[in-house]
Amino acid sequence: MPEQYQNGNSARQPGSVPHNVTHSQETGNRNSQNKSNQMTSSKQQAPRQQNSGSGRPQSRLPITEICGKGLDSWKLVKKLGSGSFGDVYLGVNSTSGEEVAVKVEDLKASHPQLNYESKLLNILKGGVGVTMVHYVGVERSFNVLVMDLLGHSLEDLMILSNGKFSLKTSLRIADQLLHRIEYVHSKGFLHRDIKPENFMLGRGEQCNTIYIIDFGLSKRFCDGRTHEHIAFNDKKSLTGTARYASINAHRGIEQSRRDDLEAIGHMLLYFLRGSLPWQGLPAKTKEDKYRKIKEKKIDTQIEELCADFPSEFTEYLRYVRGLQFIDRPDYDYLRKVFSDRFYAEGFINDGQYDWVEKLKAKEKRNRQQQQGTEGGTLNPSQRLHQSQENGEQPPNENTDDPNTTKQEPKSQTDGQDSTSGRKPSMAARLFGNLCRSHKRKNNPQRVGGA
Ligand SMILES: Nc1ncnc2c1ncn2[C@@H]1O[C@H](COP(=O)(O)OP(=O)(O)O)[C@@H](O)[C@H]1O
Ligand SMILES: [Mg+2]
Description:
- 40% of the residues lie in helices and 12% in strands.
- It has 450 residues and is α+β, with helices and mostly antiparallel strands.
- It has a domain at 13-30 and 60-344: Transferase(Phosphotransferase) domain 1 (Transferase(Phosphotransferase), domain 1, Orthogonal Bundle).
- The protein is globular.
- The structure holds adenosine-5'-diphosphate and magnesium ion.
- Magnesium ion (MG) binds next to loops.
């Protein structure tokens, strides 16, 4: 067993408070080591699945009801997504009927993280695009976190938008992402796992607000009291998702604010181009793969990467790659770079993202399908089947990790038993038809490390 994995076994225990975490404790870091090892070795993945609950038969809910304080209780309806440590379920408040997302983690999980995440969400509470926590507790043998239900992830939406985002949409996304990450940084934390799956749209009035989720790899970079920045270190292993990670993260340099911003830059180019040049590189081992991704990233000139797009993307990447370790990025400047281009193009800030019409059309089709089905009820797999018949856009097939160990969210088609006989919920309608794309698309691999 590699030393790194042994370190990972001494991971943060539930109850540790991110507020009190000093950089020398490196809880975020140890947490990421855990993830790293679980993500990088299928041998290590297997035992996690057995004891984390995520290895259970996909159709079974681990618990059926969560009882919070007072009158609040939530029934679990179906699985929405699988994380690297637990699963996320659609829940419904038994009194109000309000739909929520419930993240569930086995109490026996070897590297628990849900408590850490809930404390971080508490620190970030009130920020635009931050999920509100309704309840945190223990239910039977699981840690549970009940939070706002969100809509589609940027990855879902990109697939829906024929595998790319337009310049207009990408520029508006950039503006929101810079606000989100500035806010997280302003609270003293790095995200360290920037990727399209970790940004989701809100619902209802917030349907055009991009939320930042998944703080499992977050790390405090700035002491809450002294404001001292964490120390430079160049003996780290890669933390995050290789496809979007900064070059310095690949090089083993301790991440700081600049790395989140560089990863956002890579993600924006992914949106515009539909893929990145370091996707799909052949490699025999994970280590080989990461080395090749790193080399290709280093070899790809910024001008080449951004060749087909306005110079502002080159400017952005040059700026963030030029930042020093402890530099505070000038978020306002970066937003202005993008917004100037937005208006220079003659775009109007009318909320018309690429996905708006696509989602409307999808909703309309779903409604029609419901009406045309006996009893007006469609379970997720029926909806999936019908969406295929409707000639839905094939998924983006650019993959860079065919042997990814990340569980695919195939469970989005699960839980049919529990939804049968009920009118499909808004969330089920929203999520149902995207599962085919998810199933066939290989997720980029997330890695962690010291
Ligand atoms: N609040 C939410 N509403 C709806 N779906 C969610 C929510 N939070 C997470 N998910 C779904 O669950 C998946 C895994 O959650 P995430 O927090 O990213 O866990 P992990 O750290 O394991 O990646 C997400 O990619 C998303 O599909
Ligand atoms: Mg995630």
